[in-house]
């Protein structure tokens, strides 16, 4: 229960930080300001007992990081810390694109977004919440690293759809959301870009389910637990996203779906690899 | 033997890259150019089979990374990859300080330099060369993480001394070398800053030896091997540094020591913690 409370507190920190420093506000528009804050935060994540905590976010993260040590093994902390550092580092690239007026290719964006979305961090939390250790020999397997990328993209891409309304209201102009990036790169309408994003999401989900079954076939108990915890994160993320005022926005309602499709795989090509250079390798992980 | 050849090839890549992109040349002066190159390189490190390799350094790193998979376990690759990513990320901070004319505090510089010097990468290579697996529960221990910071600083700080001559000849003006940073922060002469750096190095070495003995007291065979491999890296780095033309520079000789001091610990205060906020915590790891 303390680990679940910790996770909830950490996610509050993460969403608040992401809005205030990464999606909105003056720091998000300045790669140099982003660099300075994330350099400070990453030292707190690594060595909390030595880092300066001279602003609210640093002080809160410092407290969270110290509490974490009482709840985890050092290996669990290290996994959380590495994915969190990668999230922080990814923010510089996002800020620099905005500041330079640079529109990245969808392929490059999706590769950086694997880290900068923060979703990979979720994949390190179930060990902490449930108190089990996934062996390093499993955690670092190439197919598991690929599986984490698919997991992160499913949640990240569906978040781009549900948060589009909020971002257009509150964020800087820019191409941080793949809907805008697809519309730009394909020269298509916003509506077509939404459909394209939904199609990408369907294909990633179809791949996820096949990879998942393939990994479970000869998974040990910890890996089995961890994979099924990833399943739960995806389901929980949908349920939360479609009901939270963060995205529903009662004062100026977003046009969100009322629920899930009964059968998400009506698209006949759901099993085809996406022709996007940075992620097409995911499909090579399938053994049959 | 193939792993030793790989290590040698990788170090050639690392030193060439460090000179051309991090210490010297136009990219080193531009945080944005640094960001773009390191974003590309870190994807090659993580997922080599999906990344673009459209310049010499990317193509060479791609080849090195693919060879690595045949020599290592995924856990070894992941440790190398994480330390290498941290090295790459640290370059942005170094470049940004130069571009903004910002002189960091010594404390902040030393914290970033732990990653950006590249020395932490060395600590992941002995497993690869000798083919053994340090258990994750050892590798992620807080005292081992601290030990790696001391290790990285000993080699990094002595490198700042031996490479000073080369950097003044070839690099941008700046504060990438702690000798200049100490002279600036303390308002002292270059000669006094060199003495201060040597004193810091002596104290770090005195701590290293005590921490090393403390860890060895109840270390398993892999941890014992790994710790003594760290010893060898330090000795080898001295031997190489004082004889390589890179630093000796026969055409315009550097004023390097002819050998090691017979007794490095004549300084009476060798056991005192350094009063530098970001690293003073190292001494709290001592149990007696």
Automatic annotation (TrEMBL), chains A, B:
Its cofactor is Mg(2+). The keyword Cytoplasm does not apply. It is an enzyme of class 4 (lyase). Keywords: Lyase, Magnesium, Metal-binding. GO terms for molecular function: metal ion binding; terpene synthase activity. Its EC number is 4.2.3.-. InterPro entries: Isoprenoid_synthase_dom_sf, Terpene_cyclase-like_2. Belongs to the terpene synthase family. This is Terpene synthase.
